[in-house]
Specification:
Blueprint (H helix, E strand, L loop, with lengths): L15 H10 L2 H11 L6 H28 L3 H12 L5 H17 L7 E4 L3 E6 L3 H10 L1 H4 L5 H14 L4 E7 L1 H4 L2 E7 L1
Antiparallel strand pairs: 1-2, 2-4, 3-4
Helix pairs in contact: 1-5, 2-3, 2-6, 3-5, 3-8, 4-5
Length: 192
């Protein structure tokens, strides 16, 4: 008989209700509608300023809600991860713990089923968005020129910063690739 016993009531899957709540509250359509109204009759720097304002607020709220729900609806993977962090004196906290919440946020609101993690180690977390529903909505609603200004990057940068702040991890966040230039977006959190 196997010495490892895993009770049947352990779930290693993300809670579907949590995912649905985030999907409904933080749709690309809602934030892009708000942005498109905010930029009516504006151009250039005004569009950039509105993009920063609208998408930073969205990113902060999105990740704060993700963190709250992700903690309220733990799966077995999260429980084991927290035990490992405790057992190593917090050594594994970065970048494994932020990755979990970042994955929940994107998998709940985007049209892909896997968030590619390019690098995850004690110094750096890098992840890639192979496609972006928000970017596509901006292009559809506001035009390609506005989309290529990447106002939506502020949501992703702010979301990444927010989860690290919530977890009390000091990092520097940067965008290392964008949809118009690379066909994907990529973000890196470097330990400060």
């Amino acid at each position: 008989m196997n010495d490892l016993y895993v009770p049947n009531n352990y779930s290693f899957e993300l809670n579907p209700e949590m995912m649905q709540t985030l999907r409904e509250e933080f749709t690309a359509e809602k934030v892009v509608d708000e942005f498109s109204k905010a930029i009516e009759g504006k151009s250039g720097d005004e569009i950039d300023a509105e993009g920063e304002r609208v998408f930073e607020t969205f990113g902060r709220n999105w990740m704060q809600k993700t963190y709250k729900l992700g903690d309220e609806y733990p799966d077995r993977t999260y429980e084991v991860l927290k035990m490992a962090i405790d057992d190593t004196g917090g050594h594994l906290k970065f970048a494994l713990l932020p990755q979990r919440f970042i994955e929940i946020a994107y998998l709940s609101t985007q049209d892909f089923s896997i968030l590619p993690i390019i690098e995850n180690n004690p110094q750096r977390l890098t992840y890639r968005l192979p496609e972006c529903r928000t970017f596509n909505q901006i292009k559809e609603k506001c035009g390609e020129d506005v989309a290529n200004r990447m106002p939506c990057k502020h949501a992703c940068l702010t979301a990444c910063k927010t989860i690290h702040d919530e977890l009390d991890i000091d990092v520097k966040i940067e965008m290392t690739a964008s949809m118009p230039e690379a066909g994907h977006c990529q973000f890196t959190a470097k330990r400060a």
